[in-house]
Amino acid sequence: MDDARGALMVKLQRSVFAALFVAALALLAVLSQRHSTALDWTDSGRNTLSAASASLLARMPGPIHVRAFVSRNERLREAVRQLVDRYERAHPSVTVEFIDPQREPRMAERYRVSKDGELIIEYGERHEKVQGLSEATLTNALARLARQGSGWLAWLEGGGARDLNGASRRDLGNFSAHLRSLGIQVQALSLANVTHVPENVELLLVPQPAEEWPNAAAAAVRDYLGRGGNLLWLADPGGPRLGALEELLGVAPESGLLVDPGSRLDGRPTPEFVVVSSFASHPVAAALSPFAAFPTATSLAWEAREGWQVRGLAATGLRAWRETGNLDQAVSFDADEDVPGPLDLAVALQRPSPKSDASQRVLVFGDADFLSNAYLGLGANRTLGSNAVNWLSDDAQLVDVPSVMAPDLDFAPGQPARALIALGAPLLLPLGLLGFGLARWRRRRGR
């Protein structure tokens, strides 16, 4: 009787367990349809939006609609889904619509779609076309849509200064193109003809000229600063003195070139570069990693003028010095002539704006080469330049998406590992599972 009751209890327990197990599976199935969770286990986090993209989305409350013009290419459709999914997880109002341009040619013609895989990003009443499936291209398109201002970035061209449209190594054409990709409107003001900086200029960029400014240009810059304009001054060693700026700002590039015997790039000593890996706590220096490199820098002397707050952003180390001797020969520190570090090579100035409740902002760098075509991609130089324009424009919409490397994609196994992989999947793994199953079966049968 007891055996029968015990057997009945065991069956009952098994039945209850089976019912609870099925109920748990059903509950998980329902929850999985209503809620989703994604984990990024890649070494570089390349399947997760960068902090810059997430921050931009947080400032875009309205719906964002993505029209993906993709033919029946399933691999391309999957690539679009994987990219847009990252934005959908970060923003509740991101939606995607797939359109076959061959079936809907009028829609493709309306948006001037010419290539398979192009995206049209719609936000509010505006839209942007995206070519290239990457976080950088998509986020920068969103940044252009989010920008509300209509101000311009203007630069003073001529007089031997670096050209923002130029393609030579010393020019700033790549940096200018990068700013345009972020939605910044860039225009030139000729030093020879400028008599007034237009009112719609939010930021004036001053590359160091090789010749002294004409009196009219100097007066125009003084008037612009007097009206509360923001300014980015990229100084070069050996250029003429810009008295209009030095007098108003209290900042002056010093003669000579900075030398840093402790500087190294790619493991090689580069004393002609000043490599800075530690900056002052400031929005311009945010998210700078691992370093910024200033190829031909000079130091800055400064004295705070009344009303201005001045702060050093970057400086040399103790081993660096400002070389005042002949640079055509081997250089070494001369205690009687050279100036030892630390020496400032970037300063930020700020004061209440005379025309609004905002603040007037100025940045001065003792080097322009770090933004040149030759060195823009070195270290965090591009990010530093973007941060500078962002802070000076007081524009939270400017986004510089960092490039995410994927070291775990570089998989090059040796011959033993290749043999193990070749035999393991089709042979060793099934045999191992079969052996494990047989061992368990024999163990249970022997009980």
Name some characteristics of this structure.
Rossmann fold, 20 strands, 447 residues, 2 domains, 4-stranded mixed β-sheet, elongated, 7-stranded mixed β-sheet, alpha/beta, 10 helices
Short summary of the structure?
This protein has 447 residues and is of the alpha/beta class. It has helices at 2-34, 51-58, 74-90, 105-110, 135-146, 173-181, 215-226, 243-249, 381-393, 415-445; strands at 64-69, 94-99, 118-123, 126-130, 152-157, 185-190, 201-207, 230-234, 251-253, 257-259, 264-265, 268-269, 274-276, 292-294, 300-302, 309-315, 321-323, 339-340, 344-352, 359-365. Helix 7 (215-226) runs parallel beside helix 8 (243-249).
Principal-axes shape call = elongated
Structural class: alpha/beta
- Major sheet: size, sense and barrel closure? 7 strands, mixed
Strand tally is 20
**What count of domains describes the coordinates?**
2
Strand line-up in the sheet with most strands: 6-5-7-8-20-19-16
Tally the helices: 10
User: What is the helix fraction of residues, given as a range?
Assistant: 25-40%
CATH class of the largest domain: Alpha Beta
Determine the strand fraction and express it as a percent band: 15-25%
What does the radius of gyration come to? 31 Å
Average pLDDT metric = 81
**CATH H level, superfamily name of the largest domain:** Class I glutamine amidotransferase (GATase) domain
